[in-house]
Design brief:
The complex is a heterodimer of chains A (about 325) and B (about 425). With about 325 residues, chain A is mostly beta strands. Helix content of chain A is about 0%, strand content about 40%. The radius of gyration of chain A is 24 Å and the shape is elongated. The relative contact order of chain B is 0.11. The chains are: A mainly beta (about 325), B alpha/beta (about 425). Chain B: Keywords: Glycosyltransferase, Transferase.
Chain lengths: ~325, ~425
Amino acid sequence: MIQEHLGTPPRAVPAPAPHRAGAPAARRIDHARADCTADSRGGLAFAVRLFDETAADVPAHEAPESAAVLLRLRQQHGPDATVRLPLARAEAGETLHATLAGTALLREGRWDAHLDLGDEELLRLLPGMNDLRSLAAGATFPAHAWLGVRIPYTTKHGNLSVRAWLRRPHAEAGALHLADGVMELHGTFHGVRLDTTAHLEARPRDAAAAPVRVPVRPDTEEHPGQATAPDDGPEGRHPVRGFTTELPLDALLSFGGVWDLWLRPAENEEPVRVARILDDVLNKKRVFSYPAQQVTDGDGTAHPVRPYYTVNNNLSVEVG
Amino acid sequence: MHISFLIFSAYGMGGTVRTTFNLAQALAEQHEVEVVSVFRYRDKPFFEPGNGVRLRSLVDMRRHRPGYQGDDPEHALPATVFPAADGNYKQHSALTDRLIGEHLATTEADVVIGTRPGLNVHVARQTRRGPVRLGQEHLTLATHSARLKRVLRSNYPRLDAVTTVTEADARDYRKHMWLPGVHVQSLPNSVPEPAVSPADGSGKWVVAAGRLAPAKRYDVLVRAFAEVVSERPDWGLRIYGHGREEGKLRKLIDELGLYNHVFLMGSANPIEAEWVKGAICAVTSSLESFGMTIVEAMRCGLPVVATDCPHGPKEIIRDGEDGLLVPTGDVRAISGALLRLIDDEGLRTRMGKAALTASARFDPAEVAARYEELLTSLVNHRPGAVHRARGNLLGGAYAAKDRIRQGVSHALEGARS
């Protein structure tokens, strides 16, 4: 018979009496958990709770003054691969607080969250409650020079990481309709004006086949649906424009494999990857799913063709 | 009081585990509380048992541990105390019979609480003389097989009390099981106050959550939402959960061309973070023993549109005040109720606030207080030998009658074959 105590209370535990002078050193901080809240300006607030090895609360004041949340970009090095967010103690609170400002630049990728207590070792942060409701209706922050969201998530090892996207210019995919062998895509383009030469480019991945180009129509009026955005941002410095494009799927039958979709806003501009990165959904691949279309080639053979989101939430089309 | 829960596995992620831990933790503020898990499959429980609750297990099923008991020869022998009519029979064995029996024969608890029919039978038959014996029904009598009902009838007279999660089910127990001297009472499941602030109703998502199982009738919800989209294309539906209906639902969404509006989100934990992104919760089940998701959503400030199915929804929702009840399976009525809330922001906000207030009655502290009252009165008026003896007699009489009936039906089956 196995007996054990398992008291792992996240809240509702009365804090022990403060240490008297001359009392033994503060208890060891064994692990820490962070609740993350996305604010309406693109920022991400961390509320960190500390625990000892018996999973009992360690009061916030027992953490050193220099304590910080340290975000490290996975598999990357250099000055912009580490972000340090100082932790502040709330008045008489059980938690420590740090904020990643909406205006702070965070390279695109997966950032592992650590607690830095000033000693040699970093403590990997554990996830708590993530409140991302401010992102759920579509996250565009007009004050930013970049597009993207930061989504806290639990890794497969049970730790807290933050997935960040950072793009400008950016082509955000919206509603997508499949009918009669044509993929009709609505979206919004951010950062550069779309002109009459704008077009969508489907590029075969890992193959020498020629890209397929189709024109992109900027919306003349406001875009319907949740992707609605004002025509231009403040002072016209951040142009935002809805667009529609129609891709005949039989044009992709020249290569049986994956085609990545890019949008070139004007003939003389660089193309940008079409993606869906402006909401609270971490992995689009399973959630945004589209039915395969049967497209017939010149020999009368039917091929299944299906748009899908990649692991990075970029839009591609798979030809079977 | 010393209160001891007996549960199949405290290490799983089912509703019984969660509601047992909620109740155990709330009771532990005043009492000594333990949760005894028949099986242990993992090192750590999926949910936290809560402050002050002692958790222990009887049979170690962790293969990587030296104490692994899954290969004990006694575990290969069939159970005789745990009834074959309980759906978990296959996991039980002569070993579990013996270890549960030893635990119940030596327990120092004042109250022993079983959490499913098979374990309630153990509690009824093997608890030593003295402690109060309570059997919890987390499902419903109506959904049990005739065979299981016969087993319960012959064993439950030896309990002191049976609790159900709805009044409707308590009525069924009183009506269909003759349990003289056994106190039958409904006590709802509890849901703690969420650790996120409530929804403000400004989102444009309808949210549903639960296993993707046939009884949840998500197909009805998806069809109803097609009607919503045709009027309000700016709204979307998110369905959380996994299950065997996933493929069918995906196909239905594709057929109806709803892939820009209806999303199968997969599992989410904690689910509260997802409720608060929504403005309305939808429950379109054909059957809900209780309706845990209804309470969860209400505690997050969402008005719920739910089918008036047996047994739980109508005991949780006050129709027109803190949510809307619609006829089961009625696509038109469901889309109508959703659109009524979607089109009327004032009504939506009002009902959301009412839901938040009304659902406080399911707080673990409230439910635990009602349990405490029941347990205290049972302990103080501990039914003496008279009731127990009668229970034994009655159980025996039922068993004899049921054996005869079984014999007859077997004979009839034999005649037909």
